[in-house]
Design brief:
14 helices; four-stranded antiparallel beta sheet; alpha/beta; Rossmann fold; 19 strands; about 450 residues
């Protein structure tokens, strides 16, 4: 069993009002048999068509395991944007985003967005920074596929005080690196009070490999997935969230080139990490997160790196960020009856989605269909090539911001109930319409 990336070029329905149903049908007819999609990205759109990249599990159906609900499964929210003012902040991984393209460098953006709302929902790529995780207090930390399902209306989030964490680490060829991971877990228990009752050391047959697609997006391939799933099956019921740490195959020369390259380069590891956690969370309905293991203790001569990459250069285990995030990651609620509980956060609670401009995938498609306002933050470096303005938005649903400072201002206005156009000049006159008075019939 493995996870791989599959590219498709599909016709683009510029006039379609139901893009979710349209794409779901095309994907079902276009993917080779036996592939179960877990991640979906549109990297480029034009009048001729759209280029899609789909992360898929191969061999799941043959294994006899239950197949998760289709990723395009959609349930319309009955109401929207109720208090507290809840914002979803996403920065897709592996696309070279100007802010959020490297190790947790979108954390300041997350903190300023959190200051402009009552409740922030975000994901590991935004705040994970190896040994650092300064996510805003009381924010909800969930894996990217969970945000997609939340916005699609098929999943809810139940805030929790603490989770039982299962930690699964790769048995590294260098015992010293395995030791780093074990020490990091025990440090989290002793210094932070995390409940970690079991750590499993996975053999080397489970392999992750980082690759780049033709569009320049980071992706990958995962082989012998059944080795990991067997561990999760064996300990099912003993954990509420899963922390994963494993080697990601990527050549030493390319690692050095990444760290010594421009800050516009694409982080090579995030794409394959997302493919793994999307799969684990979809199959088991528990929060999950992954951190890469150090490739080797031998010096690569990197020295002082770029500030946006520096957090990785001061860590030995890279593990503390996901332990902190998963410690209070909300429980996942999929029962429609349970989702009606007022303590469960659902799509009905979401007031706005904030994302880098040009990014198009399930979160944006879901927000479009759910009439959730979207703020697209301009981004000069990400590899996505989509014009979000061509989608069939409702009037006033899509807003563009020059940066996250402006995005926070837009959120403050929305939260205060202030019409955004009243904060810009020139201010247009209100539209007037004269209606002729008609004489009542009883007077004629």
């Amino acid at each position: 069993m493995r996870i791989l990336e599959h590219a498709l070029e599909l016709p683009w329905a510029t006039g379609s009002q139901d893009l979710i149903a349209y794409l779901a049908d095309l994907l079902e007819r276009s993917l080779p048999p036996g592939l179960v999609p877990v991640r979906f990205v549109i990297t480029k759109t034009s009048s001729k068509g759209c280029l899609c990249e789909v992360g898929c599990i191969e061999g799941l159906q043959e294994s006899g395991r239950p197949v998760p609900d289709p990723i395009f499964h959609f349930r319309r929210r009955p109401v929207g944007g109720v208090d507290p003012f809840t914002v979803v902040l996403m920065v897709p991984t592996g696309i070279g985003a100007e802010i959020g393209g490297h190790v947790g460098d979108a954390t300041p953006a997350a903190r300023v967005v959190a200051a402009a709302c009552d409740r922030l929902i975000t994901h590991p790529n935004v705040v994970n920074a190896a040994d650092l995780n300064e996510m805003p207090p009381d924010s909800l930390y969930v894996e990217g596929s969970v945000i997609s399902r939340l916005l699609m209306g098929t999943l809810g989030l139940l805030p929790t005080r603490s989770n039982r964490l299962l930690v699964v680490i790769h048995e590294h060829d260098e015992k010293k690196i395995t030791g780093y991971s074990i020490n990091a877990v025990n440090a989290g228990r002793a210094s932070c009070g995390y409940q970690i009752d079991r750590l499993v050391r996975l053999d080397s047959r489970f392999r992750m490999k980082a690759i780049f697609t033709k569009t320049g997006r980071a992706a990958g391939r995962i082989d012998n997935l059944e080795e990991l799933l067997a561990v999760l099956d064996q300990h099912k019921g003993e954990y509420d969230a899963v922390a994963l740490s494993s080697v990601i195959d990527y050549s030493s020369e390319d690692i050095v080139a990444y760290y010594k390259g421009a800050d516009t380069s694409v982080n090579p590891w995030g794409g394959v990490e997302a493919m793994l956690t999307h799969t684990v969370t979809s199959l088991y309905d528990v929060p999950s997160a992954h951190s890469p293991q150090m490739e080797t203790t031998k010096s690569m001569g990197i020295g002082i790196g770029h500030p946006t990459m520096a957090a990785e250069l001061i860590s030995a285990a890279y593990l503390q960020c996901i332990l902190k995030g998963l410690h209070q990651s909300p429980r996942l609620v999929t029962s429609p009856a349970a989702m009606s509980n007022r303590q469960v956060v659902t799509a009905a609670d979401v007031s706005c989605l904030v994302m880098p401009d040009r990014c198009l995938g399930l979160p944006v498609l879901a927000a479009l269909a759910q009439n959730i306002p979207v703020i697209a933050v301009k981004d000069q470096t990400n590899r996505m090539r989509n014009d979000l303005g061509t989608l069939p938005w409702a009037p006033g649903q899509l807003h563009f911001a020059e940066n996250y400072l402006e995005a926070a201002g837009l959120l403050c206005a929305m939260r205060s109930g202030i019409a955004l156009e009243t904060l810009r000049r020139p201010l247009a006159r209100v539209s007037e319409k004269k209606v002729a008075t008609m004489q009542p019939a009883y007077l004629s």
